[in-house]
Write a structure and sequence with these properties.
single chain; 114 residues; mainly alpha; two-stranded antiparallel ribbon; 4 helices; elongated
């Protein structure tokens, strides 16, 4: 059985990289535009989370739980950093946080069923 919450969390994480994370003076900043490649790292993490939702094995659900916690925790950290520096968080950041939370909820739900 596919874990739709985990799949949705992974896809939201991927999509969030293409949305503005912060805006300053009317200009949106996307994570995918980061020259250090951080956006690509989160795209890979989101893809892994979504694939785990399709495969649906217990050990892989633990992996998606860990990745979901990392996504949610760092989205929260990014929100704190952006609020301190710029003050205006974008929809991409909230989408990333939602993706992490959905991944965690879907993984925990599936782990409890087994």
């Amino acid at each position: 059985m596919k874990n739709q919450l985990t799949i949705a969390g992974g896809l939201l994480t991927v999509v969030s990289m293409f949305l503005p994370m912060a805006s300053a003076f009317g200009i949106g900043v996307k994570m995918i535009d980061n020259p250090e490649g951080v956006g690509y790292f989160w795209i890979v993490c989101g893809a892994i989370i979504a694939i785990v939702g399709f495969v649906d094995k217990k050990k892989l659900n633990i992996l998606s739980l860990i990745l979901g916690l990392a996504v949610a925790a760092l989205a929260f950290k990014y929100q704190q950093d952006i609020s301190a520096l710029i003050g205006s968080t974008g929809i991409g950041l909230w989408t990333m946080l939602a993706g992490g939370i959905l991944s965690v909820v879907g993984s925990v739900k599936r782990l409890r069923e087994e």
